[in-house]
Amino acid sequence: MLPAAHLIAFDADDTLWSTQPHFDQVEARLLEIMAHCGEPAHLTEQLNAVQRRNMQLFGYGAKAFMLSMIETAIQLTDGAVTGHDVQQIIDLGKDLLRYPIEPLPGVVEVLTELRRRGHRLMVLTKGDLLDQESKLARSGLGDFFDHVEIVSKKDEATYQRLLSRHAATAETFVMIGNSLKSDIIPVARLGFRAVHVPYHANWIFERVEPEQLAGLDFHTVQDVRGVLAYLP
User: Fold this and answer.
1) pLDDT in tens, 159-183
2) CA dist., res. 42 & res. 123, Å (int)
3) Percent of the chain with pLDDT over 70
4) Could you tell me which InterPro entries the record lists for this protein (predicted)?
């Protein structure tokens, strides 16, 4: 049993609620729309290449994904993509901005208990500000959290800035999330506690190689309910 953690931060997407499966469904629909341009593996490779180039400009989230899908369609058709197909892609992007948000199993139970134990809770997520605020509101979880931090990226510098702002220490802060790349590695490298809650769907740009985890100290639980046994 560890000393009481005064500030517990939760990632949002695929930690508090499901997100990646919705993006996967939209990508599958894009491949259907653009099927006349090649095999699915080729189309996916093109889309990933466009997303990789655009991340520094567009950031993360549904709007960035929609723009990258449109650019991919333009490239695949040498500029001959129809207005109808572009409108279909825009509609898919809009769907990603308004799908119902349902907390993942165990989330309400865990948040309720952590509040009962007297911990301060934070949402610490990256992405588009309006989109993430909307998802938090639609989730119905907002009242559980004392702090909401929405950032453009999750790297060591960002965490260090936020941890300093909240006067967090290695004894008083825990980060909980599904992404090894964004939620676990930067926090562990800074010497803070991190709890990995694996999720079955993982965005390709969040995947890490085993060697990236070498020497890092972090905890893994089977699902979010395991957090309660880890924290007092």
Assistant:
1) 999 999 999 999 899 999 999 999 9
2) 37
3) 98
4) HAD-like_sf (IPR036412), HAD_sf (IPR023214), PGP-like_dom2 (IPR023198), S-2-haloacid_dehalogenase (IPR051540)
On the 0-12 / 13-18 / 19+ scale of CB atoms within 10 A, 43 is: buried
**Sheet strand arrangement including 147-151:** 147-151, 120-126, 7-10, 173-177, 193-196, 219-220
Residues 138, 48: Cα–Cα separation, whole Å: 29
Question: In which band, very low, low, confident or very high, does the pLDDT at 3 lie, cut at 50, 70 and 90?
Answer: low
CA distance 177 to 175: 7
Answering whether pTM is above 0.90, one says: yes
Q: Which residue has the tokens 């993006």?
A: 23
Q: Which two tokens mark 78?
A: 């040498």
> How distant is the alpha carbon of residue 18 from its chain centre?
9
CB-based burial, 181-203: b 16+ in 10 Å, e otherwise: bbbbbbbbebebbbbbbebeebb
pLDDT greater than 90 at residue 232: no
Mean pLDDT value of segment 18-23? 97
Long-range contacts of 84-93 (CB under 8 A, 24+ apart): 85/33, 85/34, 88/33, 89/30, 89/33, 90/66, 92/26, 92/29, 92/30, 92/66, 93/26, 93/62, 93/63, 93/65, 93/66, 93/69
Q: How many Cβ atoms sit within 10 Å of the Cβ of residue 19?
A: 24
Q: Which residues have C-beta within 8 Å of that of residue 180, sequence separation ≥ 6?
A: 196, 206, 208, 212, 213
